[in-house]
Structures are given as C-alpha cells and as structure tokens.
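Interim report to the steering committee. The following record documents the input for Ribosome maturation factor RimM (178 residues).
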Amino acid sequence: MSTKPSLVKVGVFGSSHGIKGFIKVFTEGETLRSLKAPTSCTVQDPLGKTATIDIESIKSNGNHYLVKIKGYDTPETVVKYRGFSLLWKKEDLPKPNDGEIYTEDLIGLETISKETKTPLGYKVTDVIDNPAHPILECKPTSGEGETILVPFLNRFVGDWNLEGKTLEIIQWEQWFEV
C-alpha cells in the first residue's frame, strides 16, 4: 500500500497579473475558496514533472483566483508556471457536497447502461480537461476495441457508485454511431 498522498488537480495556472508577480489560476467549483495562505502545494508541468511551491496569498478575482508564489515577484518570473496544474492533497480538500464528486474519483469505474444496468465492457481510464466540460475516456476492459469519449454531462452520464465501482452511461449505443 502506498503512503504517497493522493493529489487532485484543483486548477490551472494562466497568465501573470499585475506587476507584483501574481498569476491567475482557473478552476471549477469552490475548492480554492477553502485554501488558506501561506501554504505549500504541488504543481505539475505539462510533461508530468512535479515540484513543490509556497503560496504567499490567494484571492478570488472574478472567474479566477490570483496567487502569489513565494520568490516570484515580477510578471516575468512567475510566467514560468503558465499551463502548470495546481495539485492538492485529496485528504486536505473539502468533502464534496451530495451529488458532487472529484472527477479523479471516476477513474477506474466500470461503465454500466443506465437503462438496463448491464455492464458495457468499458472502464473510465482518464478524465480529460475541456473548457466546456470534462470528457471521460473509456477503454475496453478486455483490451480490445476502440476508446470511447463521453462528455461528463447529465444527459450522457447517470449516477456513480464509488463503493460498487460503477458509472451509469445514458443511451450508450449512440457512442458507437458517431
């Protein structure tokens, strides 16, 4: 059993903001609202390499947050984090409300038909970030067949059962007609 903490992506760094070294962080939901600075957290570059940074301050600013990273005091220095993911220890995150889930928890769930409750022979292998909504990557459990991409929207995805490790897909047949 691994003792490494489970990290959850809570945001993506955008462009620098102002002249004092702030950087924008775009996120869905209210996860960053509970973050209290100063604190340390993990960042991940687009190639998957991780590092630890110290956040001096964080504040809400419209549809994003502004973060001040210790040791980065100008727009020219902080821009190196543009496109990096902000990761947080899952155990330190607020518990999701009823009907909500951290999308990382969907990875590994077996797909079943919402209509018939029968297994579909696919498993969620990744959750792809998309500006409009997350997209579930589903691969065959047998290793044979094509990967299916399903928008994580109520009209395509039903209920999930983390204990039973299942995820309902609505009108599954339509994904093979595309």
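Residues 103-175 form a domain with the SH3 type barrels. fold (CATH 2.30.30.240). The committee is asked to note this result when reviewing the revised timeline.
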